[in-house]
Amino acid sequence: MTESPDAGGAARLPPYLRHAFGDFNPTPPPPSPVPSEETLRPFVLTSGRVSSSDVDISLETQVTTNYDAATAAYATVGLPSELRAIITLCDVPMSVAEISARLRLHLGVTRILVGDLRAAGHLEIHHQDVTENHSPDVILRVIRGLRAIT
Q1: Nearest to 96 by CA among 107, 80, 82, 85
Q2: Where does the record place the region Disordered (predicted)?
Q3: If you compute the radius of gyration of the chain from its CA atoms, what whole number of angstroms results?
Q4: Which of 7, 39, 44, 91 is the most buried (most CB within 10 A)?
């Protein structure tokens, strides 16, 4: 049994058949987005990897460079601009999250790049000892501080 071309029946028809019943939209659909250089660049930088092989690198991991300002320029020749920028930012200890925010890179991409730079000997990572016990006063001050800013 076929659908009748009334208003209710035309609404149930697939979009490619609706034009036969007068519900045709003469404007063509928008073209599918073509990947730009900005969307392909992270994929190229990470060689298609989506996770870091270095499990020691997390969101709050502090990163520093192995070079002073004068040596960094020579040591980073030939590296892509994003990798050079990471090395430059890490003159002072900086978290992976902050590197990601400052360079406007996805956090996963930043973790992969930091892992690559660490493996190549450009960066050092520093972990904070999270096993130390804090006094209840410190914890309560942190809670009050968080409530104050929300």
Answers
A1: 107
A2: 1-36
A3: 26
A4: 91
Place of tokens 């709050």: 60
Secondary structure (3-state) at 102: helix
Between helix 107-119 and helix 37-45 the angle, nearest 10°, is: 40
Structural domains counted in the chain? 1
46/41 Cα distance (integer angstroms): 9
Whether residue 59 is contained in a domain is answered as: yes
Residue found under tokens 């969101």: 59
pLDDT per residue as tens digits for the range 14-26: 666 665 555 555 5
Q: Is residue 138 part of a domain?
A: no
This prediction's pTM: 0.59
Give the confidence band of 37 by pLDDT, cuts at 50, 70, 90: low
Residue 60 amino acid letter: E
C-beta separation of 112 from 49 below 8 A: yes
In a domain, 31, yes or no: no
Q: Whole-angstrom Cα distance, residue 147 to residue 98? A: 23
